[in-house]
Specification:
The chain is α/β, with parallel strands linked by helices. It has a single domain, classed as Rossmann fold, CATH 3.40.50.720. It is built from six helices and nine strands. It has helices at residues 11-22, 39-44, 60-73, 103-128, 155-178, 212-225; strands spanning 2-6, 27-32, 50-54, 79-82, 134-139, 182-188, 191-192, 209-210, 233-236. It has a seven-stranded parallel sheet with strand order 3-2-1-4-5-6-9, with helices on both faces. A two-stranded parallel ribbon has the order 7-8. β5 (134-139), α5 and β6 (182-188) form a beta-alpha-beta unit. α1 (11-22) packs across α6 (212-225), α3 runs parallel beside α4 and α4 (103-128) runs parallel beside α5. The chain is globular, with a radius of gyration of 17 Å.
């Protein structure tokens, strides 16, 4: 398989890159903002199957440039996983109440959590269309489910992940016409022991706090089981469907 892991330099992206190599990837493309300084490059930078490309998912030109390099490298993509996501960064933190909402922070989360994957799909379109089996996915979150929202709070993160779900759902409809063997899915990885979740792990049961490798292995099994009939769906790490 020709596989692209966007945001594969560390964390769950790195763990998914390990899964790709273990699954026998013929060509694995790993993107990161600074790939040569990443944990992934330190781990398998000498592997001839792996190509590292710089990509800032908030930069339209960078997305286009990376896609152009990928088009030269492979004739098609068989699996794409977009892992970029922000919950907190710098002065950005999950809102506890409406008074905490900041317009700039909201736009930043939308750019990273929602827009990146669909802009990447736009630029990779020639490698996605056809009649080959393809799984195009993006990491979402259960809190992005509108119908599952019972606690409130976290306005920007919830809304950005809900937007991601809608964008991927819309992509799934168009891609089905261009490639009948394609599946598009958003994925809830569970609570993963990464920098993103560390401040919010206090109330998570021990058996529900996953290592990045555990979560990646479960998500990989979900992707292996996808069929075109599943396209446009939000799946949890255990394969269950989460309503939008």
């Amino acid at each position: 398989m020709n596989i692209l892991i966007q945001g594969g330099g560390r964390g769950i992206g790195l763990a998914l890159a390990r899964q790709a190599l273990a699954a026998g990837a013929r060509q694995l493309v790993v993107t990161a903002r600074n790939p040569r300084n990443s944990a992934a490059h330190a781990e398998f930078g000498g592997d001839a199957r792996v190509t590292f490309l710089p990509l800032d998912i908030t930069d339209d030109v960078a997305i286009r440039n990376a896609a152009d390099e990928i088009k030269v490298l492979v004739p098609r993509l068989d699996r794409v996983i977009c892992t970029s996501g922000i919950l907190r960064e710098g002065d950005i933190n999950p809102e506890k109440r409406i008074a905490d909402i900041d317009a700039e922070a909201l736009v930043t989360l939308y750019r990273v959590n929602a827009l990146g994957p669909v802009l990447l799909a736009r630029e990779l379109w020639p490698l996605l269309k056809g009649d080959h089996a393809l799984q195009f996915s993006a990491i979402s979150a259960r809190v992005g489910s509108i119908s599952d929202n019972r606690l409130g709070g976290w306005y920007s993160y919830r809304a950005s992940k809900a937007a991601l779900n809608q964008l991927m759902r819309t992509l799934s409809i168009e891609l089905a016409r261009a490639n009948p063997n394609a599946s598009v899915a958003t994925l809830h990885p569970g609570t993963v022991d990464t920098d993103l979740s560390k401040p919010f792990q206090g109330n998570v049961p021990a058996d529900k706090l996953f290592t990045a490798d555990d979560s990646a292995a479960q998500l990989w099994r979900v992707l292996d089981g996808l069929t075109p009939a599943d396209t446009g769906t939000l799946f949890a790490y255990d394969g269950s469907v989460i309503p939008y």
